[in-house]
Amino acid sequence: MEEQIQGLRQLIETKETLVNSKFISIASGKGGVGKTNFAVNFAYTLANEFGKKVLLIDADIGMGNVHILLNMNPEKNMKHLLNGEDINDIITHVKGFDVLFGFSGIDSLIELEDLAVHRILSGLDKVSSQYDYIIIDNGAGISTKVMSFLRASNKAYLVTTSEPTALMDAYALIKSLNRLYGYSKFKIVVNMCRNKNEEIEVFEKLNNSTRKFLDLNLSLAGGLSYSKNLQKAVENKAIVVEEFPTDSYSLDMKRIASIEVGEPIKEENPNFWEKVFTFLKRG
Ligand SMILES: Nc1ncnc2c1ncn2[C@@H]1O[C@H](COP(=O)(O)OP(=O)(O)O)[C@@H](O)[C@H]1O
Ligand SMILES: [Mg+2]
Fold first, then answer.
1. Is it the case that residue 264 has pLDDT exceeding 90?
2. Displacement of CA 185 from its chain's centroid (Å)
3. Residues with Cβ within 5 Å of ion ligand 2?
4. Which fold has domain 21-282?
5. pLDDT tens figures, 180-230
6. CA-65 nearest atom, ligand 1
7. How far is CA 148 from CA 30, 134, 143, 277, in A?
8. pTM (two decimals)
9. Residues near ligand 1 with C-beta < 6 Å?
10. Looking at ligand 1, which atom is closest to the CA of residue 32?
11. Contact partners, residue 85, CB within 8 Å, separation at least 6
12. Domain limits of the chain?
């Protein structure tokens, strides 16, 4: 069985057409599937295990909880950027990577003068160029905000569990992005796996549907084990890869990060922020 799984994984990996990319969105159809834990632990692992310069952005409007996992009470967030403060004073360095908290102020974007938008864009562009990876933790579902970030990203890590509702919602998100915008750069993360087969089984279920109904092949990023230590870490406002580096979740995370780091860099993504802002404004 183990061999079969390895074989399948290789098959999936050789079909891999995605490339190493800077702007990575983390998304899910349904909430509570482990998206924020994935985003924070992925950022930590890329930074501390692979020496990458990482900026993590909490774009889960109204529900953002990156700061809770990081045990922080941030004074500055995106709103301060819109108010004209220097982006370097807003970004917080924590646990080996940088974080930009909260996007709640983005609603006021419509009322901003072009000059202000331009200043914000150039601030974001300038800092973005300093990072190897910009990881964006999005809210669940199919809002315009989520879609705007996803459409502009080089790659979308879509987190799901084996639960039928999570899979249905993941499919709905993929379908919307694909049908409306032709977006196809999905990597599937199967979270809370209770055994080795689960990651392949769940991935195949989703991929069979997208192949059949959307003519779209997904990529498998990998599975993440169900982890009591992750829950313990969350309760202690800590993160599992730091607190329990040998936990199976942490080892799974390393595997997913090493695949990301190993993907060749081919794709440039100029004007990422301009795209996001345009999509946010026009829908
Ligand atoms: N791999 C896992 N094993 C066990 N529990 C998990 C795992 N991933 C997430 N959880 C649980 O799910 C909860 C919600 O996770 P979170 O990352 O906040 O989800 P989301 O951002 O998708 O809403 C966590 O607080 C934790 O209790
Ligand atoms: Mg979340």
1. no
2. 12
3. 35-36
4. Rossmann fold (3.40.50)
5. 999 999 999 999 999 989 999 999 999 999 999 999 999 999 999 999 999
6. 18
7. 18, 15, 9, 8
8. 0.90
9. 28, 31-37, 191-192, 224, 226-227, 230-231, 234, 249
10. 23
11. 76
12. 21-282
